[in-house]
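Hi P.,

Sorry for the delay on this. The queue was packed all week, but I finally got your sequence through. Input first:
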Amino acid sequence: MQRFFPSFAATAMVFTLLFGTCPATAQSPRAANLRQSLGLIPYAPPKAFLDGFFIADEGRPAFLFGPVGEFAASRSCKTSWLIEDSEKERLDKRDPANPVFEYTLYLEQDCSDGLTDFVFLDQSAMNPKQWIEWRRQFHKNKAEPEYAVAVKRLEKAIADGFPVAGEMRFVLRNGELDATSPQELLATATACPPRYDCSKGEPVAR
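Then the structure:
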């Protein structure tokens, strides 16, 4: 046995040098294909996003869920944070003097029976007033009346100690849009109970 060990160690070292360290869990072919088709690459979200809570309906947020990092950690299968390569390029080119910015992130859940992508907006750089100003770029004068209720609800949640870091916009199942709204889906099909009732303006009893 003593003679065998050095030989085995040398062989293992050569193998590692030639082939590298094997990952513990490789992504499935289905996940690899979707990443390629959508131009998705790995990305590490900022701590402020992972530590914050998220809404699941932009216009009428009924609840806050999360925090984002806890939601990701509670998934039953392997997960990866991803970003579109074009979005990453846009993010890298943003004006440092204007940190207010939102961008799309994908939380990929790669299970043996299917692939799920939870699609988020990282809005952790914004407060509610900046959030509505950002929407004014796209909705012009309609932004104020359309999102007035949402802004009031988010301001109340933040004042109560629930920082709002983003929004879950939609969910993809094997690359196809899930017709169920994220707000309904989170409460019924993802083992993700709400943490704050935005309509009542109070935390949800746990």
